[in-house]
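Reply to dn_fold:

You asked what the input looked like. This is it:
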Amino acid sequence: MGRSSLLRNSIQSLLNLSNNGVSFQDFIAKLTEETRKLTGASTCILCLKSDDCDTLDYIAASGDLAQYLLGLRVNLDNSPLSAVFRSGEPKLFEGQRLRLTGGLFETEYESAASYESGQNSISSGVVVPLRYQQTICGVLAALNRPGDNSRKAFAQDDLDTLLLMADLFETGYQKDAATRDLFARNRELKVLYGTMATSEALKNVQAVLDRVVGATAANIDNCSVALFLMNDERTHLYIASAAGLSDVQRDTMLSTDCKLAESVLVTGSSIFTSDLSDFPEVDDFAGISVGSLIAAPVQGRNEALGLLIVCSQQRNLYLDDDLKTLLAAGVHAGIAIENALLYEDARRQAEETNALYSLSTLLGSSLDTSRNLHSTVERVRDLFRCDGVFACVLADQEPHLYCAAQIGLTQPLGTDVQLTAGHGLIGWVYEWQTPQAVADVAADARNGSFPLNHRGAVSALLVPMQMGEVTLGVLAVTSRLRRHFTVAEMELLYTIANQAGAALYNARLYRLVRQRSNEMRRYFRRVTTALGDTMQTAATAEKLVALTLEMVRASTCSLYVLNGDVLDLVASVGFKASAQPEREVTVGAGLTGWVARRGQSLALPDVLADPRSSAHIWMLREEPASYIAVPIRAARQTLGVLELTTSDYREFERDDTRLLTLFARRLRFSEALNSIHAR
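and this is what came back:
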């Protein structure tokens, strides 16, 4: 078969490959092989100029030296092929030796006679430039080894063959460039479509984040993807969604002051690098030795929302098309996130308003503590879309918390669980009266004494239930998946907890009033039974004082009658023989005299801290803890003083003084004092 027929067959074979859609690498490998066969060369190579224009990449080779040449990167200035790049003219090399050493071509002009045969030596060759869009992008070379007499010298026909192959390369390269551009555009469209595929994704922030990350990971190969969002304080970036990262790596946070964040967020531009020596924080969150990285800002309408990062262990992996794709994904992700935030904010406000109104109506219409708390935890679970909710409240008579209502916990809190102040996260929130949002419950040191993670809580939000300055319990929301609670969610739960706290306080106050009312009825019946309708003697006062001491559960009780400017002791109970109260107290002196002069009640949780207590010698001896006294009045006149002390510290409230005054009035202390005063 003649040379022309061989050339036609080679051209037809190459055109068929190009039309059948084979990869560009397979096309140039076939082109290099056909060139070697047509020229009868020992070796044929195809080199392309690198992006930095300083080196040649040997991307295709055929023949004896193929295994040594394929994949090499050679400095352009040290290569004999540089003359072709500079002149743009094809060249024939003959009568000189080109030896490959250290990955670079060194030219040594010696005669063929003095040549010592070697595997990596070249005696002659023909080199032509490869062009794309009128620019030299590489070279095609056919080479012979010295000492191989079977190889003919290269002639003009061989040069023409290489020039024809160079034209075929330009056609294939142009088609490959068009294919790559089409692929990049198609991939960009896929990523953008993936971020906006459904209307539901535009209404839910997490759905938008997951779709952006999923579309990016599906269209950019061999990568780990992390989408960072700023926290509420805009001091750190946390991973809101990721692909190719473990759970531990997802916990990593980046400071907004780190160089990577500043390079992208402050400038508002994307970065594309394979030199990560300036970005050590990338290895920290990825947990791998990163070889290539591209990062783009997630930009909202008025401010940066976060950072979209794609990284790989392979160096020099990503191209400009990847960067453009990621940049477009970041822009559309920012718009979609803001739209979703606006929608969620409007929906949240409507849901919160409706939930708060219905909950306040429910809590205000019932004094049943159990029913109110169970209704609260159910409404909270629906409102927060969480896995578990529980409410721990303070026991009526004991200084510990117990679980009064719960829903959704994998291991329920038993009724026998008793938590004191500072015990676990629940006890800490109760003690310090401070809301807490915990993204990783198991890693929190406060969780150790009472682990919530054993009950299915990966993340938790806890707030105190309060009424004024009184803390009545803790309301908590838990999630079985990692979740970052926002400030708005904390404020909402705090509002609900305060509503529940007010209902709990009212219910307890109602129970206390009923309990005291029942106790007073019992005491009234006892007084009626014991004394009848007449109270004419000092023994009557003694019985009334003893009854008062029993009702208030105090340590001592004494009753004084006003006689001019002096208060006379008429009855006392609970005092030791060595520390009896004063028989007479001048009006205005000490605590008793102050109550008589002012005609006002007095309650002291720490009686010895009051300087007026020093006027009472028995107090200095016995050191009582708390003190309460009420004036006995009739017809707007003060007739006497009824006072009590306790051995334990007690916070007396206004209701206690009112109850004591009412009790004294109902037991007709004034009539008893009038009778005693008359005698």
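Residues 95-120 have pLDDT under 50 and may be disordered.
Hope that clears it up.
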